[in-house]
Design brief:
Elements: H1 6-10, H2 24-34, E1 46-51, H3 55-73, H4 78-94, E2 97-103, H5 114-141, E3 145-149, H6 156-162, E4 170-178, H7 194-197
Antiparallel strand pairs: 1-2, 2-4, 3-4
Helix pairs in contact: 2-5, 3-4, 3-6
The structure holds flavin mononucleotide.
Length: 201
């Protein structure tokens, strides 16, 4: 029977890590794997920031402050805001390494109209997604756990400024990386309902 390649099935989101530091040579390798992703018209519209130092706290603080403002604007109670933001802070600072995928306009086409400009940025985002998947597959291949965390896409400027990154680097994806905690029980992956999700035309 034709089966999904094992290395694709083997990658799972793992959200708990041993405290061990991750070898920077391995982190470089997974970032290099990310950079082999397809990208529009031979561009490489992404930049990567590996955070494996105390800078994790600055990043969590910067993104957390924006999330507090957003939740406050949504009318969420102060106690619930504290609970959510504190849990996120702990998750971010507790990961041995974070890899931030940033988008830049460098290498992308510019259009005079908003419609095509948005489509161009959308292509860059698609490419970033492909790159992040490469990164996580490579991490799994090295026996590392990883989990994509959505936070920076909601506050790219705050994430950038928290790490004092160059102005055009806009964080849009964050991946937690570390040695997996052997006690972590992953969520059950539901079967893929092919008949719902795919049709031929
Ligand atoms: C764009 C994106 C954002 C995500 N954000 C989060 C997140 O903020 N927190 C989290 O725990 N998992 C996050 N995930 C991981 C998904 O929950 C996970 O991929 C999904 O449940 C499928 O499980 P699997 O990766 O183990 O196959 C995100 C995944 C994607 C693609």
């Amino acid at each position: 029977m034709t089966a999904v390649p094992r290395f694709i099935e083997a990658r799972r989101s793992i959200r708990a890590f041993r405290p061990d530091a991750v070898d920077r040579a391995v982190l470089d390798c997974v970032v290099e794997a990310a950079c082999l992703a397809p990208a529009p018209h031979h561009s490489r519209p992404w930049r990567w920031v590996v955070v494996d130092t105390q800078a994790k706290t600055a990043l969590a603080d910067g993104m957390g402050a924006q999330w507090r403002r957003d939740l406050g604007g949504d009318g969420v109670s102060p106690a619930r805001i504290d609970e959510l933001v504190d849990a996120s802070h702990t998750k971010i600072t507790g990961a041995p390494a974070l890899v931030l995928g940033c988008l830049t306009w460098d290498g992308l086409d510019r259009y005079p109209d908003e419609r095509r400009q948005r489509a161009e940025w959308g292509m860059a985002l698609l490419s970033l997604g492909a790159a992040v998947e490469n990164l996580m597959l490579a991490a799994a291949d090295h026996g590392l756990a990883s989990c994509w965390v959505a936070a920076p896409i909601f506050c790219p400027e705050e994430a950038r400024d928290a790490l004092e990154l160059p102005e055009p680097w806009l964080p849009h994806a964050m991946v937690l990386v570390g040695v997996p905690d052997p006690d972590y029980a992953g969520r059950v992956r539901p079967p893929v309902p092919m008949e719902e999700l795919r049709r031929y035309a």
